[in-house]
From TrEMBL:
Domain of life: Eukaryota
Matches recorded under SMART domains: PHB
Membrane spanning stretches: 35-60
Subcellular location: Membrane
One Pfam family from the record: Band_7
Protein name (Swiss-Prot/TrEMBL): Band 7 domain-containing protein
Keyword list, A-Z: Membrane, Transmembrane, Transmembrane helix
Protein's organism: Artemia franciscana
Amino acid sequence: MAEVESSPSNGLKKVEQDFVFGADDVDSGIGLCGWLLAGLSWIIVLMTMPFSFFTCFKVVQEYERAVIFRLGRLLSGGAKGPGIFFILPCIESYTKVDLRTTVFCVPPQEILTKDSVTVSVDAVVYFRVSNATISVANVENAHHSTRLLAQTTLRNILGTKNLHGILGDRENISGDMKAALDDATENWGIKVERVEIKDVRLPVQLQRAMAAEAEASREAKAKFIAAEGEQKAANALKEASIIIAQSPAALQLRYLQTLSAISAEKNSTIIFPLPIDFLSPFLDIKGLVA
């Protein structure tokens, strides 16, 4: 009537039972009193048929599992589901466990970094129940415990990093946090699938200082680029003067090119060209070059 849990951990349910309770506790009988109570429950079920079926038959969804206890003891076979299963009234109880991936946000944590800077960091954690039996038997509230552990783990890991490491190395921090959480929650039947650093908030004074530092760095870089451009321009002018000194006709061509450019850009300006020969007596090209 009931279907055994079909999760990947089903093949290890015997080992898990030994880990949680011990093989002797799981396989031992419920005693004479337990058998008497079980027989009494069956009598009640038969006497109240068919109304008892509404309370004895339970259904769990594809993404759920049911962990059943009889007189306080875990039933052998592990969690039940998905599908329909039978519960004896009075002596058996069950707990539904959702196996779907759950996401929660770690509240912003005030953290003192390795270089003595206070930052506020929050994260997102994705996890799921990998073993329903262990998640019920080994911890009171697996989801709440995982949330609290994520907060402390975030503090511990980021406390060993400096500010630049937190801002620029989020991927490695997320990986370290996932490994630490996954290792700690293994005994709770919880599998941590992913951890992401959501936001890093800096103090206002530190934001202003970093902005001023970045602006100064950009200004210094701009001045360096401008100086480098002036140097290249000066070298180009020097090479051009040498070429003009070697060929006087080049100066005449440059003069005509300048006149053409001026006439094209400012059409309303009237230009009276002056022959370069009139200026040759006043130019000492060799002296300029020297």
